[in-house]
């Protein structure tokens, strides 16, 4: 890891937690009263961020499958990082979706007491928890050897944590490593169907809503999968360039290889997106056209044309096409895709909710909560900053003090400490 950025990023994460705590305080004290969404637009910024982190976890999930199921050796250097990244994204996902619920405490027991196995939401709950358990175990078995070996070298609270995670073991031999490798391989086999069903279930959850014309399409689950792999793959490429190990040549080769994959996924996503708009406008249906117009010429048109298509698509498309052999440019291109992809998720969630489904409904009942005009307010942004900062801080602490990436001992790596 490039530890020169650790103090700055840690400061930003802590500052975000402090600033965002104001929004969290009001959300926990007053429920959903401080938010801007209401009855006609029941989902807002937090659902968009949920989908955003869902996509990021999918990219890291794919790398773990390539590494520990298909055993593609070049990815082994970023395998533990990818598994850990899945956990961080799942953590952010669950916070966003829980805080979006009006009575979020019910999520902790209602699915256990009265599960409905014909409901996609129940299966999303089951699959989410399965993913959390699988990747917690996978991450642990991937780093257990380093934890046991390096526990005596640590000091203070870090040593206490290492000894706790070592469960009293003081040695780690080849036989134990082989056993852990087998466990990781088995977990990779289990995670493949579980992960695919989890990501597909999220797409299907939107696709089956027949009164939402943009969502209600057989294309929606496919768009979900491609979008998830694109945004997640872009993030993994950036992390590979930054955390890919001491072997610079391997790190740059991996970045270039991943960049080509991201270029393919970006091109495929833009084609699918163009098909969605073309078919939607060709139908001539008022509800579909109005929803699409909300994206292209509505109040937030700039998030589609400038942020998504301009900064997040056109510039990376050009850079990844003509500078595909420059790892640093590839990493910057993927960073643009990853950082702007929230606009894609926002323009997926809001426009289909921002159209009255019954003519004259807007004048039948008049109330601040009975409108399709929605703009995230300060409280929603503060809560989002808090959750993102919490995820960033956990990621920084994990990669700094746990053997997730290039293992450090007192500020130097193991090889340096032996000199």
Could you explain how this protein is built, in words?
The chain is an all-alpha fold. The chain has helices at 6-30, 45-68, 79-100, 110-113, 120-150, 156-166, 174-207, 219-243, 248-283, 286-296, 301-322, 327-349, 361-364, 378-401, 414-417, and strands at residues 408-409, 412-413. Strands 1-2 form a two-stranded antiparallel ribbon. Strand 1 (408-409) and strand 2 form a beta hairpin. Helix 3 (79-100) runs antiparallel to helix 14 (378-401) and helix 9 packs parallel to helix 12. It is globular, with a radius of gyration of 22 Å.
Helix and strand topology:
Layout: H1 6-30, H2 45-68, H3 79-100, H4 110-113, H5 120-150, H6 156-166, H7 174-207, H8 219-243, H9 248-283, H10 286-296, H11 301-322, H12 327-349, H13 361-364, H14 378-401, E1 408-409, E2 412-413, H15 414-417
Antiparallel strand pairs: 1-2
CATH overall fold name: Formate dehydrogenase/DMSO reductase fold
The overall strand count is 2
Q: Major sheet, described briefly?
A: 2 strands, antiparallel
Provide the residue-averaged pLDDT: 87
Strand order of the largest sheet: 1-2
CATH architecture tag: Up-down Bundle
For the record, what is the CATH homologous superfamily label?
Formate dehydrogenase/DMSO reductase domain
Structural class: mainly alpha
Measured between the Cα atoms of the first and last residue, the distance is: 20 Å
What shape does the CA trace take?
globular
Proportion of beta-strand residues: under 5%
Give the C-alpha Rg: 22 Å
What's the helix-strand series? HHHHHHHHHHHHHHEEH
Number of helices: 15
In the CATH hierarchy, what is the class?
A: Mainly Alpha
Give helix % range: over 70%
